[in-house]
Design a protein that fits this description.
With about 800 residues, the protein is of the alpha/beta class. It has five domains: about 15-115, Alpha-Beta Plaits, CATH 3.30.70; about 130-360 and about 530-595, Peptidase S8/S53 domain (Rossmann fold); about 365-515, Glucose Oxidase, domain 1 (3-Layer(bba) Sandwich), CATH 3.50.30; about 665-705, no CATH class; about 710-805, Immunoglobulin-like (Sandwich), CATH 2.60.40. The chain is built from 19 helices and 39 strands. Strands 6, 7, 10, 12, 14, 15, 25 and 26 form an eight-stranded mixed β-sheet that branches. A seven-stranded mixed β-sheet has the order 18-17-23-19-20-21-22, sandwiched between helices. It has a five-stranded mixed β-sheet with strand order 32-39-38-34-36, with no helix packed on it. The structure holds 2-acetamido-2-deoxy-beta-D-glucopyranose (12 copies). One 2-acetamido-2-deoxy-beta-D-glucopyranose binds near residues 406 and 416.
């Protein structure tokens, strides 16, 4: 019942006025969702009243009606607005409510959890690093003509450009029907009938919470699956774009692109929007629909802005929906976050999620110029060289003003061609400045290019102004003219001193930056990539779970772009872009999982994640740990030895992941047992999952570390303990494994047995005893290796803080 005090006048056209007092809340109710009841009936299911003899869809309708009844019997009509009913993965709803209404629902018998909707953001960064550009990891992919065929990868993202050649099904070899997939393709004026095909099999959008909160603007956000941002087109094409699509930007060809699983199908669930990002309610609705539609894999290049409030990061509505997706057989691959390089910055928390860190690969597009005095300066810019081998005279923009030219401050940013005297500039290379305005879109490279073209200049040399040098990395920037951006203060000074000293006779040759250079260095953890250890709650207490799980290329990744995309002004109007983020790493993993699934269709989500992890590499060819770009006070790169808190199990090795030999498997019950180990969580766990914690563990009390993961993480090893693990063979033949151990500092490790032979489809228990030998102030790292007689290598990282008493 509602008290008059709480009454807020609010009609459907007045949400703007209600915004101050209302927010989007997610409300989870007692009782299982359809996945829990029908997909994989859980025997221990509790004594909840269930209408018997209902079909899954009848049960779903029944749940929806209970949501409506709860709301309408509690609040006066018009004082709230239900946005979504969730019934497939979680039993609950999302609604626009006042804080008092949320409080009232929280007190209700039927309600298990009330959570204010936290916005989520795309995990993309615009501060690419100086060094190393990505490997198109797509090149690892051998048989492009078949790779990933039959698998549907679902992406929750900013939508898709359906006209992009990466998503055409007009290919030499026709695509099969995605027969298991049940999703639809929405239609709208800007997303007309026929936008989907046998490659892009589904496209839907979710915006109720964005609309209700007043952030949605149909003009720029589109009430359809169309990608007005660019991010979704990029991630989808990285996961499963067609093979052999030419990457052409500003007339320059950068080679050919391919998704990691080029023959897989794509289903897009738009729940994120340019500008404000997205709301968890819209994302949860998207995840529900994707699982209902029977996608095989979910790729989420999104995450919260910080640990969700509450008792545990693992018990948020978002994470609970992902747990249910996993129960339904769908592996969720999620970006680790771009909050690095600081400790505890991970933004993907739960053990049922495969959290992906981003690496910097070995490809760069170096650009440089040679001055008339033979000095050479390095720079950046995806641009062609000045024509021929000759030198060209340079002219500083402010020296080329028209007589009547204005005395505007920023003439050197070259934004307005009519300020300059074309006779002075023609045939020369113009010198312009590159400042902070370019990073945030105030000044644009397009306008510089316009200026150069209008004045018939040959090209442009841009020097970095002092507001940017050393503080911001300059993103990869394409130019349709000969060009270079000098990034360093020293380089800029060298240029200007020479220009000044040459008395208008300064000359230059720009070498161009359109050609890739490969350094053959091993991958490094990207500076922006979020780091572990995994925080368990608001107070950043540590969960004994290794995060991130795996690393993949995520720095300067070329992939498809929406030509109306607003997300990166450098690539405005282009069909491809080169951008960075754990967002870019995540679909690499989703694509590789599709490849594993083709070879091993029955693997559980946990087993798939295990296959990626145990075969990853965390050391270089000399056995030294992969390097990580660590904190520094400026844009210079501080490299140090990486740890599992930086790269998880290491950089993905797709070849090895297809045939891991052994897997560490786990299922829903194991995850619930894990949740029961979180101090103080048993009541919430029971209310959320319907399972009583004391019933889940047969004899001994389980610890979080005991969850059967392909890693061991102990944040406070104060006494000796035995950590159990179970491996399952998914190899075709029997194999004998021997164990080798590399102990972390401060702990002694023994494993029983040290050798075993395992038959296909059978399991082997390992008993790992870990004893602290001295006290350490910070985590130390080791691993154990199971080396098989048939060549399988299964590596398990160990992270421990030892406390010896
Ligand atoms: C694929 O689906 C279309 C339309 O649903 C149907 O006409 C066609 O026969 C199917 N093709 C195959 C190979 O199953
Ligand atoms: C929606 O976006 C358009 C284009 O940017 C803008 O002109 C319009 O004012 C916006 N509407 C609202 C309500 O913000
Ligand atoms: C620059 O190098 C070229 C070739 O090495 C040489 O011929 C020329 O004299 C040099 N110019 C100056 C100014 O040093
Ligand atoms: C500054 O640039 C000049 C010309 O490229 C180079 O010779 C010199 O080594 C640079 N100095 C530093 C400190 O990087
Ligand atoms: C460019 O400069 C001309 C001449 O000063 C001026 O009339 C015009 O408004 C400027 N255009 C822009 C876009 O600033
Ligand atoms: C170049 O010369 C101009 C005018 O003489 C002066 O204002 C400027 O500071 C000089 N720049 C450099 C880098 O020496
Ligand atoms: C950047 O910071 C590092 C230390 O973090 C320092 O060694 C280096 O000199 C700095 N570089 C510049 C250009 O300030
Ligand atoms: C990746 O795995 C393959 C197959 O096991 C192996 O030959 C290769 O050396 C691995 N690559 C790295 C970098 O570890
Ligand atoms: C679980 O639900 C019951 C009944 O609504 C409630 O009394 C109890 O406080 C809840 N427990 C927790 C830990 O939220
Ligand atoms: C827990 O176990 C007890 C005894 O075996 C049983 O009576 C009870 O129903 C179980 N509770 C749940 C929620 O499964
Ligand atoms: C580690 O565990 C011991 C024993 O349970 C406890 O006394 C100590 O406070 C813990 N240390 C931390 C940092 O949690
Ligand atoms: C192992 O199990 C898989 C899937 O259940 C089955 O296809 C395969 O034939 C089994 N292999 C052996 C050697 O029993």
């Amino acid at each position: 019942m509602i008290s008059p005090l709480l009454f807020v006048f609010c009609t459907s056209v007045m949400y703007w006025t209600c915004q101050a007092s209302q927010h989007v809340y997610m409300v989870i109710l007692r009782g299982p969702s359809t996945v829990h009841l029908f997909e994989d009936p859980f025997q221990d299911s509790p004594q909840i009243y269930l209408p018997s003899q209902l079909s899954p869809s009848e049960y779903a309708s029944y749940l929806v009606s209970t949501h409506d009844v709860l709301l309408s019997s509690t609040f006066r009509e018009g004082t709230y607005k239900k946005l979504y009913s969730f019934s497939h993965l979680v039993n609950g709803f999302s609604a626009l409510l006042t804080a008092q209404q949320a409080e009232i629902l929280d007190q209700s018998e039927e309600v298990v959890l009330v959570e204010r909707d936290n916005k989520v953001t795309k995990q993309t960064t615009y501060t690419p690093t100086y060094l190393g550009l990505p490997a198109g990891a797509w090149q690892d992919e051998g048989g492009a003509i078949n790779a990933g065929e039959g698998i549907v990868i679902g992406l929750v993202d900013t939508g898709i450009d359906p006209t992009h050649p990466s998503f055409s099904d007009n290919t030499l070899k026709p695509y099969p029907n995605a027969s298991r997939y049940e999703g639809v393709c929405e239609e709208a004026t800007e997303f007309p009938k026929g936008s989907c095909n046998k490659k892009l099999v589904g496209a839907q959008h979710f915006a109720e919470a964005a609309i209700a909160s007043g952030e949605f603007n149909a003009t720029i956000h589109f009430a359809s699956p169309l990608d007005g941002d660019g991010h979704g087109t990029h991630t989808a094409s990285t996961a499963a774009g067609n093979n052999g699509v030419e990457v052409k930007v500003d007339g320059i060809s950068f080679g050919f692109a391919s998704g990691m699983a080029p023959r897989a199908h794509i289903a897009i669930y738009k729940a994120l929007y340019p500008g404000f990002g997205g709301f968890t309610s819209d994302v949860v609705a998207a995840i529900e629909q994707a699982v209902k539609d029977r996608v095989d894999i979910l790729s989420l290049s999104i995450g919260p802005n910080g640990p969700p409030p509450g008792i545990s990061t693992c018990l948020s509505t978002f994470d609970m929906a992902m747990l249910s997706a996993s129960k339904a057989g769908v592996l969720v691959v999620q970006a680790a976050g771009n909050a690095g390089p600081y400790s505890h910055s991970i933004l993907s928390f739960s053990p049922w999620i495969c959290s992906v860190a981003a690496s910097v690969h070995d490809r760069t597009y170096p650009n440089s110029l040679v001055l008339g005095n033979n000095a050479s300066i390095e720079g950046t810019g995806l641009a062609s060289a000045t024509p021929g081998d000759g030198m060209y005279t340079m002219i500083l923009a402010s020296d080329a003003l028209r007589e009547d030219g204005s005395d505007l401050l920023d003439v050197n940013d070259c934004q307005n061609s009519s300020l300059f005297n074309a006779d002075v500039v023609k045939g020369k290379v113009m010198i312009c400045s590159y400042g902070i305005d370019y990073l945030f879109g105030g000044s644009s490279i397009n306008d510089v290019i316009n200026t150069i073209n209008k004045l018939s200049a040959v090209g442009v040399v841009m020097f970095a102004t002092s507001d940017i040098e050393g503080r911001f990395s300059i993103p990869a920037t394409p130019f349709s003219i000969p060009a270079i951006i000098i990034q360093t203060n020293n380089g800029s000074k060298t240029l200007l001193n020479y220009y000044n000293a040459s008395n208008q006779a300064a000359t230059v040759r720009i070498k161009g930056g359109a050609n890739a250079k490969f350094s053959h260095e091993t991958p490094k953890v990207a500076k922006f990539s979020s780091r572990g250890p995994d925080p368990e709650n608001d107070n950043l207490q540590i969960a004994d779970i290794l995060k991130p799980n795996i690393m993949a290329p995520g720095s300067n990744i070329w992939a498809g772009w929406s030509s109306i995309g607003k997300d990166s002004h450098e690539f405005k109007g282009q069909q491809f872009s080169m951008i960075s983020g754990t967002s870019m790493a995540t679909p690499h993993i989703a694509g590789i999982v599709a490849l594993i699934k083709v070879k091993n269709p029955t693997l559980s989500p946990a087993a798939l994640s295990s296959a990626l992890a145990t075969t990853a590499f965390s050391v270089d060819e000399h056995g030294n740990p992969l390097l990580a770009q660590n904190p520094s006070s400026n844009t210079s790169i501080q490299l140090g030895p990486g740890t599992p808190f930086d790269f998880g199990a290491g950089e993905v090795n797709a070849t090895a992941a297809l045939d891991p030999g052994l897997v560490f498997d786990a299922g829903f019950e194991d995850y619930v047992r894990f949740l029961c180990t979180i101090p103080g969580a048993s009541g919430v766990v029971q209310n959320l999952t319907g399972i009583e914690c004391k019933n889940t563990s047969s004899s001994v009390t389980m610890l979080a570390t005991d969850l059967n993961l392909p890693s061991i993480t102990i944040s406070n090893l104060s006494s000796s303990r035995i950590v159990p693990r179970t491996v399952t063979s998914i190899a075709r033949d029997s194999e004998t494994y021997t164990v080798t151990i590399t102990e972390p500092n401060g702990a002694q490790i023994a494993i029983k047995p040290m050798e075993f032979t395992i038959a296909p489809n059978s399991t082997q228990e390992l008993s790992i005893s870990i004893t602290p030998t001295k006290s350490e102030s910070k985590p130390s790292f080791g691993y154990f290796l199971l080396a098989g007689s048939r060549g399988h290598k299964v590596t398990v990282p160990i992270s421990i803080v030892a406390k010896s008493t």
